Amino acid sequence: MELIIWLVITIPCGLLFTGLGIYAWRLEKPMWFWSGSTVRPDQITDVKAYNRENGIMWICYSLVFWVTMFLGFRNISGAGIVLAAGCLGGIPLLAVNYNRIWKKYKR
Question: Which side of the chain, N or C, has fewer Cβ within a 10 Å radius?
């Protein structure tokens, strides 16, 4: 039963962040990062490269969920620790990485 709950948590989250990465990668206007913010095309030097890096960032974040999903088959407690560390550590890394991308491509 706990494995089913684990899969119900990790699979949708993995799909969400993978989907966000694919969406960002394919988006023709600049992808935003913060909720409610927008990035205008005239603020970015290379929208396609900017979005590609944003997409890669989100797909990399989704790997935490995919890896821990598989770890859950062997050891749910250990997978939970890895998931908590990956999510909590990953959030500041997302912000730092986005700021790096922003500085690289801003006009």
Answer: N
Q: Contact 76/3 with Cβ under 8 angstroms?
A: yes
CA dihedral 32, 15, 21, 85 (to 10 degrees): 80
Q: 57, 70, 47: which is closest to 18 by C-alpha?
A: 57
Look at the pTM and tell me if it is higher than 0.85: yes
Range of the domain at 75: 2-105
In tens digits, what is the pLDDT along the chain, a chain of 107 residues?
899 999 999 999 999 999 999 999 999 999 988 777 889 999 999 999 999 999 999 999 999 999 999 999 999 999 999 999 999 999 999 999 999 999 999 98
Handedness of CA 38, 12, 67, 26 (dihedral sign): negative
When divided into structural domains, the chain yields a total of 1
